[in-house]
Amino acid sequence: MKRGNLYSIIYLLGSVILIVGIGAWNFYQSRRHMLQTHAIWVERVTTQIMADRQLLSRTLEPLSGKSKSEIRTELFSRKDFCRGLLV
């Protein structure tokens, strides 16, 4: 094999290995960024859901010692509860 052909083959293999390495690095970085973004989104949504649940539990707490009719009139007097039933 000629010396020029050997250098060409080495250069070609090196280029292919470099392209594959850059592609793998890009995949790894993209995946890591996606996972971080997803974790931030999950944290934000979880916080919002927990806040809504606490608000609802605080809203229902005063109803604990009342009769069924008193609870029914109290709940139906609230606009947010009525909208929830309509949906």
* 3D shape: rod-shaped
Helix content: over 70%
The major beta sheet can be summarized as: none
CA-based gyration radius: 31 Å
**Fraction of residues in β-strands:** under 5%
Unreliable parts = none
Strand tally, please? 0
Structural class: mainly alpha
Q: How many structural domains can be distinguished in the coordinates?
A: 1
The H-and-E topology, N to C, reads as HHH
SS field, number of helical segments: 3
Please, could you describe this protein's structure?
The chain is mainly alpha-helical and 87 residues long. The protein has helices at residues 3-60, 68-76, 79-86. The N and C termini lie far apart (79 Å). The relative contact order is 0.04.
Can you describe this structure in just a few lines?
With 87 residues, this protein is mostly helical. The chain has helices at 3-60, 68-76, 79-86. The longest helix is centred in the middle third of the chain and has 58 residues, at 3-60.
Q: Topology, please?
A:
Elements: H1 3-60, H2 68-76, H3 79-86
What are the key terms here?
87 residues; mainly alpha
